Amino acid sequence: DLWAVSVHLSTNLGPRTTGATTVARRLAADAPAQDFMVVGGDFNTDTEREACIDVLDPLLETAVMPVDNLGSIATSGNRTKPYDRVLPDDDLEVFRVPTVVGSGTYPTGFIFDTRVYTPLSEVPPVQPGDSDPNVAFQMQHMAVLKDFHIPAQ
Predict the structure, then answer these.
(1) CA distances to 67, 115, 116, 144, 147 from 70, in Å
(2) Do the Cβ atoms of 51 and 17 come closer than 8 Å?
(3) First CA to last CA across the chain, in angstroms?
(4) Where are the beta strands (DSSP E) in 2-98?
(5) Counts for the chain of helices (H) and strands (E), in that order
(6) What is the spatial distance between Cα 141 and Cα 79, in angstroms, rounded to a whole number?
(7) What is the DSSP string of 54-69?
(8) CA angle at residue 42 from 102 to 132, to 5 degrees?
(9) Whole-prediction pTM
(10) What is the pLDDT of residue 85?
(11) pLDDT value at position 121?
């Protein structure tokens, strides 16, 4: 079984850590240890490591950061902060495989930003402005991808 949890943590550090603590506590109490688990979404983190990530680290793989085709881990609209994440548990992490987008292969996963990905012709019907906050109304986050291949049993 797979537990997939979508989060949208606070933009404020204290409540963000409290939210992550609540998620960690509920998962530890409710999700059977043998089940796969992934937590993804908007963590609103300002840096790669901060308290809300440390709280989740005992349950989830937090060190593997996807990158865009230029090597950036930032997912905010202005590409300065790593807001968004996909965090699998250790049982699921062993099945992570490189993410393939167009002709590129990304061992740790991929962050998709139409403003920097080339050539866009590899991923139709995507347009250059699709990730641009000045073009796409209220675009604040980039897509974050991680792929997993779980063998059939």
Answers:
(1) 7, 11, 8, 14, 19
(2) yes
(3) 13
(4) 2-8, 36-42, 84-88, 96-97
(5) 3, 9
(6) 9
(7) HHHTTTS--S---B-T
(8) 50
(9) 0.94
(10) 98
(11) 96
Amino acid sitting at position 148: F
Show the low-confidence residues of the chain (pLDDT under 50): none
Listed residue (120, 112, 118, 119) closest to 141, CA to CA: 112
The pLDDT value recorded for residue 80 is 96
Residue 138 has a pLDDT of 77
CB 101 within 8 A of CB 112: yes
How deeply is 10 buried, as exposed, middle or buried, from its count of CB atoms within 10 A (0-12, 13-18, 19+)?
middle
Specify the pLDDT at position 95. 98
| Nearest C-alpha neighbor of 148 from the set 73, 22, 17, 36 | 36
Question: Regarding beta strands 99-101 and 104-106, do their DSSP bridges make them parallel or antiparallel, or are they unpaired?
Answer: antiparallel
Q: What's the pLDDT at 153? A: 75
Calpha distance 100→120 (Å, rounded) = 14
